[in-house]
């Protein structure tokens, strides 16, 4: 086995498409052996790829995939996206329900929304910085630290929802009050859903794009920032060098520790920004227990970055695949073709074939006699 000296650019596309195709094929074989009609499974998966319901996940995963790409390119494995995503919602709830609640202390809505975005980004950055400090100065691997921080974030959010943030207008449910409508970022339009299937799908897509317009803007802004970061920012260059040869970076006179801290902090800030915007666009309130109701974006974004082979151009394509697969798993449960384990099995099959195809992309196997 020899590592390829040159990997053709089109290999990235081939490996990603192959991972998707072969992974679905493996999953269909498993469902067939389990006595489930593979044709029904395939139809539900295919529908998910053209369903307007993937819009929300698509935008969120683009933003979070780009955020993780920054740390991954530095060989810093930020597995703590889940914690950074939800810990960033705390300032949003505090600002909108307590400090600037329209019932008691009305304030300019754009100003409050800007504060929510800013404080969410800061909160996510600080949460990622904890793991970065352990890695930079104590040489402790960031993977277990970020995983542990995920659960600490869950417990902190749950404590606040159960205690200080507990809602008063929740009709017996254990959750926060709903964020006032003045601070929500959705745009609601109503279209008559009639016509041929294509027309109905386009109408549904239009409604979804309008409703999640803030997440669309977020995805574009984060993607553009990530492109600028790697293309023109000196820190982006240092980040890439750290991912391939930290010793060379040190020989250049650049602080390796500072590079670690900044790369992880920027990654966490972008995830925190996404979490705060998700709170205002979709979630609207924080439920209890958050770990049982999480959408899993922090972990799904890892798959987005890996499927892209850490190539920014591939992030939207990978985000589309992962969001479609996530919705396919939900559709399979609704159709009675499996439970939660089926959706996990589907994504697991994709990951397995991805690992194999990526190995074949980066290495060549020679048989010598």
Account of the protein in words:
- The protein is mainly α.
- The chain has a domain at 52-308: Orthogonal Bundle (ABC transporter involved in vitamin B12 uptake, BtuC), CATH 1.10.3470.
- The chain has 16 helices and two strands.
- The protein has helices at 10-33, 38-49, 55-73, 81-87, 89-99, 109-138, 142-162, 197-211, 213-231, 234-244, 246-251, 256-283, 290-293, 297-307, 315-334, 340-362; strands at 2-3, 363-364.
- Helix 1 (10-33) packs antiparallel against helix 2 (38-49) and helix 4 packs across helix 12.
- The protein starts with a strand and ends in a 5-residue tail after the last strand.
Number of strands: 2
**How much of the residues is beta strand, in percent?**
under 5%
In terms of structural class, how would the helical and strand content be classed? mainly alpha
Please report the first level of CATH classification, the CATH class of the domain at 52-308. Answer: Mainly Alpha
- How many DSSP H or I helices? 16
Outline, from the CA principal axes? globular
Strand order of the largest sheet: 1-2
> Distance between the terminal alpha carbons, to the nearest Å?
14 Å
Radius of gyration, taken over Cα atoms and rounded to an integer in Å: 22 Å
The major β-sheet equals:
2 strands, antiparallel
Give the overall average pLDDT: 87
What is the CATH-assigned architecture of the domain at 52-308?
Answer: Orthogonal Bundle
Helix content range: over 70%
Q: What's the helix-strand series?
A: EHHHHHHHHHHHHHHHHE
The CATH topology assignment of the domain at 52-308 is ABC transporter involved in vitamin B12 uptake, BtuC
Low-confidence stretches: none
């Amino acid at each position: 086995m020899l590592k390829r000296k040159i990997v053709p650019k089109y290999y990235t596309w081939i490996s990603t498409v192959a991972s998707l195709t072969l992974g679905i094929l493996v999953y269909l074989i498993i469902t067939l052996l389990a006595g489930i009609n593979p044709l029904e499974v395939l139809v539900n998966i295919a529908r998910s790829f053209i369903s307007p319901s993937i819009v929300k996940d698509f935008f969120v995963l683009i933003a979070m995939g780009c955020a993780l790409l920054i740390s991954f390119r530095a060989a810093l494995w930020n597995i703590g996206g889940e914690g950074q995503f939800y810990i960033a919602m705390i300032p949003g709830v505090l600002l909108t329900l307590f400090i600037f609640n329209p019932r008691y202390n009305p304030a300019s809505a754009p100003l409050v929304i800007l504060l929510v975005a800013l404080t969410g980004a800061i909160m996510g950055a600080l949460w990622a910085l904890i793991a970065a400090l352990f890695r930079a100065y104590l040489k402790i691997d960031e993977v277990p630290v970020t995983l542990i921080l995920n659960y600490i974030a869950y417990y902190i959010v749950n404590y606040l929802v159960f205690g200080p943030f507990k809602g008063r207008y929740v009709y017996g449910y254990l959750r926060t009050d709903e964020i006032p409508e003045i601070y929500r970022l959705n745009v609601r339009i109503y279209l008559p859903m009639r016509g041929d299937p294509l027309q109905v799908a386009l109408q549904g897509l239009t409604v979804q794009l309008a409703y999640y317009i803030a997440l669309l803007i977020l995805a574009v802004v984060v993607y553009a920032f990530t492109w600028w970061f790697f293309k023109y920012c000196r820190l982006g260059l240092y980040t890439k060098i750290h991912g391939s040869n930290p010793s060379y970076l040190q020989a250049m006179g650049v602080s390796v520790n500072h590079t670690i801290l900044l790369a992880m902090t920027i990654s966490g800030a972008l995830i925190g920004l996404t979490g705060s915007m998700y709170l205002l666009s979709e979630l609207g309130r924080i439920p209890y227990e958050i770990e049982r109701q999480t959408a899993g974006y922090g972990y799904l974004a890892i798959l987005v970055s890996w499927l892209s082979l850490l190539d920014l151009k591939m992030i939207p394509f990978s985000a589309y695949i992962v969001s479609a697969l996530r919705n396919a798993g939900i559709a399979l449960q609704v159709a009675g073709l499996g439970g939660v384990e089926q959706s996990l099995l589907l994504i697991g099959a994709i990951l397995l074939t991805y690992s194999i195809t990526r190995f074949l992309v980066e290495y060549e196997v020679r048989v010598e006699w």
